[in-house]
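Table S5 (text form). Sequence records supplied for joint modeling of the two-component complex.
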Amino acid sequence: MTVNPELQGRVFPPTEPYLVGREKVREFSRAVFATNPINHDPEAARAAGYTDIVAPPTFAVVVQELTLAQLLSEPDAGIDFSRVVHGDQRFTFTRPIVAGDELTATLKVASIKTLGGNAMITAESSIVDADGAHVVTAISTLVVRGEE
Amino acid sequence: MSLEVGEIVAEESFPLTRDSLVRYAGASGDFNPIHYRDDVARNVGLPGVLAHGMLTMGAAVQPVVDWLGDPGKVLDYQVRFTRPVVVDPEIGAVITVTAKIGQIDGDQARVDLTVTSSEQTVLGKAQVRVALPQ
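The corresponding structure-token record, covering 282 residues in total, follows.
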């Protein structure tokens, strides 16, 4: 099974809206050792100018994951999940994610490169809020290891 | 804030145990069993149960957030996953982060992270672009 080169440039339908819950942000914050009061305490977050508690920078992965699931389950993608390794990851923010946000993500396959027997897929997920305003773009490079 | 390129702005270590991995699996929704089952990790040829790369990435930025005092001041954050972090069932693993100023442009800076476990670098090109506190 090989990765379908025609995936390059493909844009997927937007994901169902994801409502960012305050307790989910607290749970994620505890898991990544985020102890800043702005991540946990609504009063501290408001004092810093936010409407509610702020998610840690990598929280966007929870929403991005919904788009990567679309990519991996695309019938003609040719991606064998058991051979996928996470190569690199980037988040570019217009503003941080805050509890109460309703987020929608749209994935675009930015590039597919083959190197040796491996395929490198760069997937860009643009995450917007309920008003359609950009919040963060999450970019992942997935390495699909070739058959030995 | 007066800063110089090369200045270390934060240093911290994070002990990881299997509990940390289960907690991150639940919080993130990444339930790949290579992050909590020795038998599955062994069967796919891994040296042991590995920390989620995204857990290492998530923890590694926290010393920078604490230095800034506000998670919203992180404008861009990228890493390359260069080496897995094996988490021993009994003694766990430790991730050590050093955050150094790489570049200053006006009211923004690039902070370069060195992230190691067992004295080996586990993240490459780990860079955080931040808005500097006024």
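Note: Chain A has one domain: 5-20+57-144.
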